[in-house]
Target: HTH tetR-type domain-containing protein
Amino acid sequence: MAESGRQPAAGRRRRRTRAGTDLSREAYIDAAVNLIEKRGAAVMSARTLASAVGADASALYRYFGGVDDVLRAVADRMIGIALDSWSRREHWIDSLADLARALYRVYVNEFPQTSFAVATRTTGMDNEIRVVELTIGLLREGGFDAETAAHRFRSLGDFLLGQAMLESAFLSLSPEIRSSDNAAWQELGNRVPRSEAPHAAAAAPHLRALMLRSSFESSLQLMLSGLDASPRSAS
Model:
């Protein structure tokens, strides 16, 4: 994963593990991501992290206040990776769309298990502040006043993180369960009595394809269209 470029806090120099590798905040973040992606967030503890980095369990507290602080740092790193892949475009709404896509790619395509574990967390750290500043700034470019921009930021954030969590949760299911759920949509037309559910029956042929792929892009476009058409002022 990409390094964040942040330096260890004063008095927290890099130390060597039993395996001879550098011990640092970044080493713990790397280990946490690897653990979550392979085994799920439930295995995260000072002991499992210690085993993953090759250090004593107490070494964690030289760099973090506890395991929860590691998770917050993981979430902030994911935001940073997305921001590093994003670049501003000429129009504010295109820039906003690409920012949402960059975050979505990191959460769902690159680290789905980790996304499910940390998407609800507020990090309060550098990269989260960067993404708040960028998003509010783009909304202000679009003509929204500060109060309205704050409301729109909340809606956009909830949409993005909710979509990421939904899709990450589905990917965390076993292949057998995912296949069974997909098959249920494929067979919807055969199971819906047209006389009792005419609208569902009419939509069934379309849902067969739609429910097997992500709705992120179409939902994003719907969200942005509504955003662009909405009032710019809270008054």
